[in-house]
Here is the input.
Amino acid sequence: MELIDSHTHLESFHQRGEIPEILERARENAVGEMVTVGTDPDDWDLYRSLAEQYAGQVHYTVGLHPCHVEADWEEALAKLPYFFTGAGKKPVALGETGLDRFHLPKEAEEAEKIFAWQKAAFERQIEWALEWGMPLVVHSRGAFGECLELLRTKGMTPEKTVFHCFSDGPEEMRALAAWGGRASFTGIFSYKSAENVRQAAAEQGWDQIMLETDAPYLAPVPHRGKRNEPGWVCHVAEAVAKYSGEPLETIAARSTAVTRRFYRLGESA
Ligand SMILES: [Zn+2]
Ligand SMILES: [Zn+2]
Here is the structure.
């Protein structure tokens, strides 16, 4: 059995000097590869160097996360194209980018100002993904309709778009699928209260599912509440297998194939 953690953040493990043991524990859980996802210029260089050091096991993306969008977002984004056009290992996608209404300040005027920056930064990153033919990792919290609308307006390629950590319901999933985009699922799938998320995954179809940890957050059952790590994507797979009635090996093989195709893993040097 082979699994891929299609969306993780390795920075906190690096800061504690834990990368070798985290990768080892992942391998013990059949997780041979992972995609470490950039959130702002502070982690892009680190992720490129990890992808170079652990080639074939660690892949990376660069993007400006909506919760990291501030007044200087243009300056931050100016550092992004180099990763695609310059020397060194290339990212496998652009993102994460998107819209997040959850973590906005309470004050309405301030919130709208920041949300407008998020939109502008998202638009710029969609344009680049189109220009460079790259897959796009979308982060959407409390803004599903607005994200989809913006992607549609900008003419983003649906097959190259993933809404990661999908936490909306079957209705939103139908809208996403009708457009032609896909979703990936975290440990939230294993949480008792998340029946709407399980139904959304069922709506997409068990042969289309992509799995992720979004570590160090959102640890799946039976580790809920602890610090998450890439190897635990096996527990997300187990939860999906149990709910769907499909054998674990089938879920693993399909999600791995979908992830490989989406990020074109194994094709780049
Ligand atoms: Zn996210
Ligand atoms: Zn993330």
Q: What stands out?
A: The two ends are 25 Å apart (CA to CA). The chain has one domain: 3-263. The mean pLDDT is 97.
